[in-house]
């Protein structure tokens, strides 16, 4: 979990910048500009940590867009522009064109203009993505209220299931949710809708556990997950214990987690109470999930 | 010059995006928002290409800020926020803290808020910087007019002189312009002032030759540089021929190049005529300068 310790340094140094939501305190930063809030985020993917076996070059670009825009979805922001810095081993025009093609396709799909692409050199193929969006109001993971119900936008664990199947020797065509692993979609429309009524919102990139812990910490509340959550999307492939593990600790889903008094969007998976920590029923849930390093 | 070929791919794919100035056509992209233009840019530095010998970790951060904000200076924009994606070999908190400290110092110096810092892994220390600014009007390198005079904000070649002295075995304390090499400053205030009256504006990151060629190409004009330009800042260290080479083809100065009918800012170094190409007096000047790869 060293990445989280480094993020604390960001919060320490920049958590008091004169922004409406500063860096390190949410998935993206907010700055009021005229009648709206501009929302800024950056996220980086590389071939070692983020590009599963059998991933196609165009999908590298889509992944970079998805993880970055997911932070805007988690801020209830409408994405405006996307920029990227692509570090390649060498000046490979075919690869560069394929990556940019993926970026273009995914940006068009989610209504975002591509406003820049920088090139650099690295032995590890890396794409740093940056996005700017606009939001009507500030919503972060910091305003969950006791009494709120907890929701996710879709069943979790599919990407991690596929990743682990790859590690066991399955090929891409055999994966039940390949599209979830290779071409995840940021929940932009859902985020815009959820921001109208929810109290707290974040995305699930590392794991449900990590995101729930961040809501608990930042909102100073207790998060209680239902132990009898529906795992039928996983239990056809793994046993029930493993399915729960994937649901709670699997990364790469890029769904949204939010709390609200009520919601006609998403799946209810728990509730917010007074107190602290994250619980699965009565059992404390450890802070664990995917992390770089 | 492979980097320039790849940038053409960016222009080909994204040069028609619905922006007021799209990616690949200037140092930064412009998008009208309300009564102003938002200006977006990203730029990447790494320890192989961009961090000279003896550079301190805090200066890595300053460099990342300088090269990125220089694109906003070249757009006559007031910087609003800076974000960065830092790729390190391992989770080294001391290094991370030093880099962020440099970013903080340089952002404060130039009035920019730090709105995000992402962490990733790479065997090559790399910092991708991203900045958003606001401009009152669009100024690019595309509107130079025959009859304009050509200006730079300060004498050129100092950074390259120091870099080449390092290669010859000089140490940092012996360099005449160490601050220009290690801690270049983006010409933000100058850019804001120049944007009020200039016809074309760009920064000089790769070389004067490269920037002059880009003005010539995008404005469809002939750029004529004075052959008797003042080289006294260099001739104390190298002969006159080498001094001219550094002035024309040296990189890393991050000064601004602009064309205007007249200017009380900067140093006049040439003129704009009808035609095409870049000339030093009557001699065609080759397109050459610093490039990654």
3D architecture notes:
The structure is a homodimer of 293-residue chains. Chain A contains eight helices and twelve strands. The first copy, chain A, has 293 residues and is of the alpha+beta class. Chain A folds into two domains: 134 residues, 2-Layer Sandwich (60s Ribosomal Protein L30, Chain: A); 136 residues, Alpha-Beta Complex (Phosphoribosyl-aminoimidazole Synthetase, Chain A, domain 2), CATH 3.90.650.10. In chain A, the strands form two sheets. Chain A has a seven-stranded mixed beta sheet, sandwiched between helices. Chain A has a five-stranded mixed beta sheet with strand order 1-2-5-3-4, covered by helices on one side. In chain A, a hairpin with a 2-residue loop joins strand 11 and strand 12. Chain A is globular. Chain A starts with a helix and ends in a 9-residue tail after the last strand. Chains A and B meet through helix 1, strand 1, strand 2, strand 3 and helix 3 of A and helix 1, strand 1, strand 2, strand 3 and helix 3 of B.
């Amino acid at each position: 979990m060293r990445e989280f310790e480094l993020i604390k340094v960001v919060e320490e140094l920049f958590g008091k910048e004169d922004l409406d939501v500063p860096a390190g305190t949410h998935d993206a930063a907010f700055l009021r500009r005229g009648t709206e809030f501009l929302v800024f985020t950056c996220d980086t993917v590389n071939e070692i940590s983020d590009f599963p076996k059998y991933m196609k070059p165009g999908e590298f670009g889509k992944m970079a867009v998805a993880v970055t825009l997911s932070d805007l979805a988690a801020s209830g922001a409408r994405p405006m522009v996307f920029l990227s810095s692509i570090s390649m081993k060498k000046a490979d025009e075919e690869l560069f064109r394929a990556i940019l093609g993926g970026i273009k396709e995914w940006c068009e799909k989610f209504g975002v203009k591509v406003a820049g692409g920088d090139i650099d050199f690295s032995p590890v193929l890396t794409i740093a993505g940056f996005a700017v969006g606009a939001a009507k109001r500030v919503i972060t993971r910091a305003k969950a209220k006791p009494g709120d119900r907890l929701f996710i936008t879709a069943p979790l664990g599919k990407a991690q299931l596929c990743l682990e199947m790859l590690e066991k020797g399955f090929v891409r065509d055999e994966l039940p949710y390949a599209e979830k692993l290779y071409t995840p979609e940021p929940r932009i429309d859902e985020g815009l809708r959820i921001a109208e009524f929810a109290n707290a919102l974040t995305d699930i990139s590392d794991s449900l556990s990590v995101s729930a812990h961040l809501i608990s910490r930042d909102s100073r509340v207790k998060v209680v997950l239902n132990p009898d959550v529906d795992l039928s999307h996983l239990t056809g492939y793994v046993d029930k214990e493993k399915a729960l593990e994937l649901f709670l600790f699997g990364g790469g889903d890029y769904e949204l987690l939010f709390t609200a008094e009520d919601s006609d969007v998403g799946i209810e998976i728990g509730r917010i109470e007074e107190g602290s920590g994250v619980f699965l029923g009565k059992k404390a849930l450890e802070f664990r999930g995917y992390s770089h390093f």
